[in-house]
Amino acid sequence: MFVLFTHQCRWFMPVNVGLTFLIGGILGWILVKLLKPNLKLEGLLIASCSAGNMGNLPIVIVPAICDEKGGPFGRSDVCHNSALSYASFSMALGGIFIWTHTYQTMKSKSLRYKALETAENVKIPNKDLDANAETLLLKRENNENTVLEVPTSDYIGDTENQSIEEQDQSSVSENRKESSWYITIEVLRHFVAELLSPPAIATFFGFLFGTVAWLRNLIVGEGAPFAVIQDTLVLLGNGTIPCITLLLGGNLTQGMKSSSVKPLTLISIIIARFLVLPVIGFLIVKAAANFGLLPLDPLFQYVLVMQYAMPPAMNISTMAQLFDVGNEECAVILLWTYVAAAIALTSWSTFLMSVLS
């Protein structure tokens, strides 16, 4: 399946998926600065703008277009195979970015919110806090008013003070070096941990067996010795999409509950997700096509632009439940964004088929 991406500029899809997360994250960051929501909503807002549903929706929508009679993308059988390959590749790439970039965003914001909540729960009463503050100010004033008299003729004492100061400066520089080295090690450790996550490992083996011919021939094809693995995966995959759709419906029903999400926040996410981001994506794809970076395949360009117009990923709800922060708010955001997606996806799909056909 993934052999289609080893030639004819199919390498642009990973770059395109990365751009959707980058530009969407910037839009989410701008909305956070403008709207100034609760800390509990900051991670949800950025994740909703950056992480799109590149899994089950493209697999359902893109091949279905090829089954329509008189479709703009050529023969039905050829279009269906290409569409399934494009959608599968999009799902694999989206899973990597979601469980690395989006996961870290949700995790960091959740930890900050829980730390702030814990600090507020154990806060000292105001009277005690004011009294402690006054005593600290008095001690600081007394220390500032006391003057230490050092004999100017005591040259030995001066040299000792200078040596102590030099030692302090050297220890500070060593601590800075150790802290920078510690930060580097921590970043590398987190990066390796994310690469060893189940979605990343599954994607790696999918790419490996899809691009290496002799490995692919072991499980794909009529005469493959391990064809039962392929049949099992197809059977599981055919049942996974309906199950994911049912889970999506179950998560959306929770969005009817009351939450702290303001209507302005929902409208801003919808505009950023379904208007601003797809317009930017359309311009990027058209510019890449004009510079010869894309193949002469309108279906491929259609999938690239639609990656910018997808509603927020369902895994955001899973992460909210995992970190136990903003479950109801996430359900509200998913509910209204998916309601708007019914109109937005239809409009963008109609527009792209008319432009790219």
Automatic annotation (TrEMBL):
Keywords: Auxin signaling pathway, Endoplasmic reticulum, Membrane, Transmembrane, Transmembrane helix, Transport. GO terms for cellular component: endoplasmic reticulum membrane. The keyword Endoplasmic reticulum applies. The chain crosses the membrane at residues 12-32, 44-65, 85-103, 195-215, 235-252, 264-285, 331-356. The lineage of its organism: Eukaryota, Viridiplantae, Streptophyta, Embryophyta, Tracheophyta. It is a multi-pass membrane protein. It comes from the Eukaryota. This is Putative membrane transport protein. It is found in: Endoplasmic reticulum membrane. Belongs to the auxin efflux carrier (TC 2.A.69.2) family. The keyword Methyltransferase does not apply.
